[in-house]
Fold:
Amino acid sequence: MTVVIEPASTDAEPTPVTLTAVDGLPLGALYFAAEGAPRGRIVVAGATAVPQGFYRRFARFAAARGYDVLTFDYRGIGLSAPRTLRGFHAEMLDWGRLDLPAAIDHMAAPGLPLHVVGHSYGGHAPGLLPNHDKVAGFYVFGTGAGWHGHMPPGERLKVLAMWHVGFPVLTWWKGYCPWKLLGLGEDLPVGVYRQWRRWCGFPHYFFDDPAMRGIERGYAAVRAPMAFVNALDDRWAPPRSREAFVFAYRNAPTMRHDVDPRVLGAPIGHMGYFRPTAEPLWRDALSWFDGLPPPTAA
Structure:
């Protein structure tokens, strides 16, 4: 799952924005203004350990087609990271309960539909949001339950070694999870790492965790339309892994789509949804948003 940030295009630079999380923590964000009159707004909810710069190409693509777009970094990541992660307290739940809600509040505007484009963890977050009712639709790439048993055998062995051998030792040594050391993305606060590791040990992620009893109620409360797109060559989140998580959105109209990478003429894996070859997938996402019912007047 190596992260490669693609070079920026020659379009106008985005505007830096400082969001204030629900608990007052500042978060770094970038605002991409729509070309012409905006037809809607999009918040990009990224994957675990992936900095917002990875989504810049998609943001420019959507802005060129009439969408105001906001990318941001969860606490502890990228522009929202402290000077050192050692001693910095953050949990994975904070990202969905405290950070993403601030981005949604910032982008909500009367008369314009607000959408969320998610990647991996971005599909876990809607059921944690206190303000999911402000979102007209969620379009998510590569979300899954994270359990090794849903993965192909080769990837399964790598993931088991990572969780039970490599990262426990490295995290103890560093005081945070040195994800970047192995070229896997941004370093992670120890609290985020511990929750992620624990929940990936269950076939249905935190829905199987006895300590998280009742969390499913937030997912049942989501009513906005949702689309979940998974590549057949996504070793971290194949379609069966998706099904083990998204069943919890039981009251939301959901669309599932499995993408054969041969359609794009290039591998997709877990990160290719936001590389240049994935533009057809981005067009599908914007077309899906265009087909949703208009926002109800207040």
In short: The helical segments are 56-63, 92-107, 153-174, 190-199, 216-220, 239-246, 279-290. Residues 129 and 238 are 25 Å apart (CA to CA). The mean pLDDT is 93.
